[in-house]
Design brief:
Length: about 400
Amino acid sequence: MREFVERADVCVVGGGVVGLTLARALARRKRHVVLVERGACGAEASWAAGGMLAPQSEADASDPFFALACASRDAYPAFAAALLAETGVDIELDRTGTLYLAFDEQDEAEIERRYAWQTSAELAVEYLTATQARALEPQLSTRVRAALLFPRDGQVENRRLVAALKRTLEVYGVRVFEQTQAEALRVERGRIVGIETARGFVGADAFVIACGAWSSLVPFEFTPARDESHMNDESIVPTVEPVRGQMLCFAARPALTQHVLYSPRGYLVPRRDGRMLAGSTSERAGFTRAVTAAGLQAITTHALEIAPAVADLPLLDAWSGLRPHAASDWPVLGASSEVPNLFYAVGHYRNGILLAPHTADLLAELIVTHNMPRALAPFAPAPPRRSLYSVG
Ligand code: GLY
């Protein structure tokens, strides 16, 4: 065994918003936490995101995912206030509401269905005629036919959120090792004893994988040796794949719109500092982070459909990020059924920023008390298919 660089109660592997928020939640529960990040914290999907906190805008049914997402959205005011108090960083929580727009018959049918189930579930949603929508947002296209207003949905400035989280981990005494590759998680007789990193060996009682789109790639070393036929067993390593989202950023001073605006094809996100984000694509392009001509074209077309005045905005920047998509479409949250001190916080896909505070609270509760919060049960890692180890 290599020399210890650190010994902790919990080691979080991955320093995106999900891992950072979980590290804070564990530290608030008086756990000594080490966080290991192969690059810079929050520099991948957390940096590329649009920061929308919009569970109602995108939901077609009331299910455990929707409940998780709404609970996390509703946790944001207290989370933002706590981060401000801890760090002085304002994460620009915006609760102006979002508009979801219909431009053709099919879109109208979609928003009517969404309005029907959300009103019957007594959720806050208003149906707007085209005139009412344009009164709220005069730059909306004249082609808009109707809209839904979700007054409780909104957005947050995700890059400020990363900055606040990094700072608050210092306040809580979390050891953060950036530029530190996780080389192998060492499993001995069914428990993780530590993680080999480029800096040395980190020991802990519990380990959490929160590596976003890279979560399936963290290597394991098993003692006794693991049967090779289990290499893709989802109970050990949930399958998470990258789904690329490209984003454009325009200068919009004065602001073109006040609300986050969605159509079924794209979205516009007005930032407090005068930037206007336009997204996005959903591409299975491996781990290639690129902005492509096709991506630019699609996003621009969808942005112009929403607000034709986007055509005159100066383009400031363009980037892409890799969303972590799990096979179930839902996040995978909880303890591995094969390795009890290994936990997963992966597969947040389009909703990592939104889900971070509630994911963190539920998982911290599970890790610290060993009692599984009911809200986590639907997201538990897959049960084992068979024994992990060769017989004899
Ligand atoms: N949450 C928006 C997106 O993933 O594009």
